[in-house]
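Cast an eye over this sequence plus C-alpha cells and walk me through the fold:

***
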Amino acid sequence: MLRRRGLRLTTARRKLLESRAIALPLSYLLWAAYVLIVVSWVPVVGVYRLFTFRRDANRMRVGRVLRRAGALAVAINPFWDFHVDAAPDAAASIDPRRPHLFVANHRSMADIFLLCLLPWEIKFLSKDSVFRIPLLGWLMRTAGDVPLARGDKDSARAAIEQMRGRLTDGASVIVFPEGTRSADGSLAPFREGAFRLALELAVDVVPLAIRGTETALPKHSLVFSPTTATVTVLPPVETAGSGAAEAPRLAERVRGDIGRALGLQ
C-alpha cells in the first residue's frame, strides 16, 4: 500500500493553527518560503535539463525534479497532513514504464501539491494563467506540463495535441475533467476530450479520488487551514480494444469509480 504523509496534525497543533493570529502571519511566511523554493529550483532544473537533454527526451527525469519541489512544499507546511493511499493491488498494476492517463476530481489549488506526492512522474494539464507566473511557468514548461486556456477552443486543441505528444513519448498525463474546482464537493460531469485521446492511443486510465483539500487553501484566500487530505489511487481502467466512440461511457465509468471512492454514489 502506498502511504506518504506530511506533518501529523495533532489535536493541539490543529487548535493552535486555527487561531487567526497564528494562521495569518504563518501563512505569509510559508508563501515566502514557497517563492524561495521556486527561485532555488530554477538553476537546479536548468542545469539538470542541460545535462540530461539527450537521454531525457520525454522530460521524465527533469519533471520528477520539479515534483520534488511540490513535495517539499507539503513537507514544510505545518497546516497540512497529506496522504497518498491506494486501493488493493491498484498501485501494483500501474507499470511506470508505460504511459497512463491519470484522472482526478478537483477541489482546491492544494490538489496540485497533494498530487506531487504520487510516486510516478506525471505531466499536468494546467491553466495557462499559472504558466504566466514568473519562473514557475518556466519550470512547468521545462518539465513538460501542458497549458490550457479555459473556454478557448484553439487552446484546447493545442493542449490535446501536446498531451498526445507526451503520451506517445511515454510520459503520463493528469487531467481534471470537471474543468474547474467543485464548489460543494459534488462531482460535475466529466469532459470527454482526454478520454477520447486515451482510447485512440490505447492508454489505460487511472482514477484518482481526492478528498479533504477543499479546506486546505480556501478559494480566494492565501491563508492556509489545518487539513488532513488524501488522494486514493484506484485500479486502472483498460482501454485496449475500444474505439474513440466509447469516450462517453469511459468518462462515466471513471467518474463513477471516483464517486464511489468518495462516498458520493
The mean pLDDT is 92. The longest helix spans residues 20-52.
